[in-house]
Specification:
Length: 737
């Protein structure tokens, strides 16, 4: 039965449910956030994640990052600001606590000062016991600042509300801040780097623009002379944020005349507000009072930021499906298996233990609160497969294995234009699927937490468009007879369904067997020679032949095999019903094409028959009549069009968990172990349906029959229940006595 795990706020980002359940700490002088999760994005990585997100989606991600604790350490220790005033003849002294700089995401070494709307700032403040400053407080903070930076405006443009300009200004500010770190390390109070989003009576009155009655109020960005660039202004919508806006969090808990107090309570009190506010008749108030010291926010509808991932495991494994969701609490979750609701599965993650073949299928999750619901953009597929055959070669790319591979390239203009990145961390790489942005999850055959793969791209590093390709071959490897090449494949492409809203989106992942490993293999008219047996597939159905089959020619370019009889392909176009069923629109953005999702690929050579499988389904099968019957494997990427992808960064392929399995009839011991009760467990490679005899010996001279076992599933497993405590040898052979 499925098991559930969950909690109000998890430390691991990818299994986080953010329900704004953190309580304020009335006496604390640190941000009330959990420790920064291991593996959380750095500032520059987060910039890349949200670079092209629409505002609402971006702010959900910011909310998730901050409440998960992905905030630099230097921002956590709050700085005290001491103020005094005599109000109506009564002297008062107060202390409040502020972040040393504007709110940022990332690490001390790599952080991003993230502009955001006042609505998100208020939501975050409510969650962690903070508020925003007033105009007077901004001036007080500037006066007390140890580091007074010179403002660095960027010329106004339509791009000033976009993440690339946010990042540009962040870099400018960081460069300037670095000049002061020797004298004033990170954590010293800084001012002059941003305008402040503030609390003001003008949130609700005296609108600068009659058409904007729900504004953001901004102020500050002081020159080193103390004069602010930005007078108090409320002419932008409350959903507006540009590169110059910063969020200075102020702990709501403060000290007034030696006793606990709250910033927002002072601001509504005509006998105390002047300590923190200088607003008066010009702001349609008096005595500094801000009657409503907050922005009005609506409850946050449930949103699912990270869907569960597909996984492939062996029988008996435990599988954990995890999600990342945000929303106004309480959040509820509903997990379904093949469309049927799983009873009691109502938490953020779902564990399925001792999985067997009946557990294979589609797992989906929906998160709901009182204000909305959201479902995963695609289901997670669980495949339960028998234990693998003996491995002849494997590379999971979790480390840099480039020295173990040979690289060859080809280009119609003879200019090298490719990238090959080993142990590439793809789990912080944004991916847009049907308009929603997610991150590329670990591959199906990877364990939870794995994050690296081999990334290839071609024809997108310069402005010279050409037909181009890249081939990789493992060094000093050769395979013959019966074996299978297997790997996980992610084919990314720019644009939306079918590559629309982009150009140059069609590129083919290529892979093959029986290669020499000494030359490029690609669909080049000028190739002098080629070798091996290989196939290609694009991710978005943009070619006349989305599925391709080739065979090498030792004296010419490779021969593309056309027609079902020659190629063995079920069909060659993604529109064929076979591919539409294999890659349905609920799992793949472009139906019939394996793009923007992990798929499992297998090339199998058995008894001179070549079989190509995708997600366990045969897409090509033919007899190998070529002269290429043995050799090494090939992974690659090929652009058969002389057009450059746009955006170029979205055109790439990922390979992961590459392995070659021995599919021969040879029997060999895979594992021998003694249990605590003295029994000896044997695992043998074997062929399902065949009988095998196991014998034992103590001296390798005299052998005794133990048992005959029929292999029902790989590997063949046998228990010697009467094994003596002394040393014992075993041997096995096919057949019966």
């Amino acid at each position: 039965m499925p098991e559930q795990t969950g909690g109000c706020l998890r430390k691991t980002l990818w299994s986080l449910v953010l329900s704004a359940c953190l309580a304020g700490n009335a006496a604390g002088q640190t941000l009330n956030l959990p420790p920064r999760p291991a593996g959380a994005p750095t500032g520059s990585q987060f910039i890349n994640i949200v670079r092209r997100m629409p505002r609402a989606e971006r702010e959900n991600w910011i909310y998730a990052q901050v409440l998960s604790g992905n905030v630099p350490n230097f921002l956590r220790a709050l700085v005290s600001i001491n103020v005094t005033a005599t109000i109506n003849g009564t002297p008062h002294a107060a202390t409040y606590y502020v972040t040393p700089d504007y709110l940022a995401i990332g690490t001390d070494a790599d952080y991003f000062l993230e502009p955001m709307t006042p609505l998100l700032a208020q939501r975050l403040g409510d969650a962690i016991g903070c508020t925003l400053p007033t105009r007077k407080m901004v001036n007080q903070i500037w006066t007390n600042a140890q580091v007074k930076l010179s403002p660095q405006p960027i010329p106004p443009s339509a791009e000033m509300i976009t993440v690339p300009v946010f990042a540009q200004h962040d870099s400018m500010v960081r460069t300037q801040r670095n000049l002061f770190t020797n004298s004033f390390p990170l954590g010293a109070l800084v001012s002059g780097d941003k305008k402040d989003v503030i609390l003001s009576s003008k949130i609700y009155t005296d609108f600068a623009n009659p058409g904007i009655t729900k504004p953001v109020v901004i102020y500050g960005w002081h020159y080193t002379s103390g004069v602010p660039i930005q007078p108090l202004y409320n002419g932008h919508e409350e959903t507006y944020a540009d590169y110059s806006h910063g969020i200075r969090l102020v702990q709501n808990a403060m000290v007034l005349d030696g006793s606990p107090a709250a910033v927002t309570n002072l601001l509504t009190n005509p006998n105390l507000a002047a300590l923190l506010s200088d607003e008066g008749a010009a702001e349609s108030t008096s005595n500094g009072v801000i009657a409503i010291p907050r922005y009005t926010i609506s409850p946050l509808p449930a949103a699912l930021l990270s869907p569960p991932r597909s996984q492939t495991v062996t029988p008996g494994s435990t599988v954990l499906f995890e999600t990342l969701a945000v929303g106004q609490p309480p959040l509820s979750f509903r997990w379904q298996f093949n469309g049927s609701t799983l009873p009691g599965a109502t938490n953020s993650s779902l564990a399925v233990s001792n999985v067997q073949s009946p557990n294979s299928g589609a797992y989906t999750v929906t998160v709901t609160n009182s204000f909305g619901s959201a479902s995963a953009v695609r289901p997670a597929t669980l495949r339960v497969v028998p234990a693998t055959h003996p491995l002849l070669f494997a590379d999971d790319f979790e480390t840099d294995s480039s020295a173990q591979w040979s690289l060859f390239w080809g280009a119609s203009n003879n200019i090298p234009d490719y990238t090959a990145q080993w142990n590439f961390d793809h789990t912080l790489l944004p991916n847009t699927f049907n308009g929603a942005t997610t991150l590329i999850p670990p591959a199906p055959n990877s364990p939870n937490g794995a994050s690296h793969a081999l990334r290839l791209s071609v024809n997108n590093n310069d402005t010279s468009a050409s037909i181009a390709a890249l081939n990789l071959y493992p060094k000093n490897q050769s395979f013959r007879d019966n074996f299978a090449l297997k790997f996980d494949l992610w084919l990314n492409y720019p644009g939306d369904v079918g590559g629309i809203n982009s150009t140059g989106s069609t590129q083919h992942a290529i892979f093959g067997i029986d290669h020499l490993g000494t030359q490029p293999n690609w669909a080049a008219p000028t190739a002098a020679s080629s070798d091996g047996i290989w196939f290609g597939v694009d991710g978005e159905g943009g070619a006349s032949r989305d599925y391709m089959a080739f065979v090498g020619n030792s004296s010419s370019r490779p021969t593309e095999l056309l027609g079902l009889a020659a190629s063995g392909l079920a069909e060659s176009n993604n529109s064929a019903p076979f591919y539409q069923a294999l890659f349905p629109p609920d799992r793949f953005e472009t139906a019939g094409a394996p793009g923007k999702n992990w798929v499992e690929v297998e090339l199998r050579q058995t008894n001179n028959t070549i079989i190509w499988l995708l997600d366990g389904s045969v897409v090509a099968q033919r007899l190998n009549t070529s002269s290429f019957t043995a050799g090494t494997i090939m992974l690659g990427f090929m652009d058969t069009f002389s057009s450059i992808a746009n955006p170029a960064a979205d055109a790439f392929v990922l390979f992961d968990n590459v392995r070659v399995e021995d599919w021969g009839d040879r029997i060999r011991f895979l594992d021998v172990s003694r249990h605590a009760d003295g029994e000896v467990a044997l695992k043998l490679s074997a062929v399902p349906g065949r009988d095998y005899t196991v014998e034992s010996s103590t001296d390798l001279a005299t052998w005794q029959f133990l048992a005959t076992a029929r292999c029902l599933d790989r590997p063949l497993q046998f228990i010697d229940a009467a094994a003596p405590a002394t040393r014992r040898f075993y041997r096995a052979r096919q057949g019966v006595p």
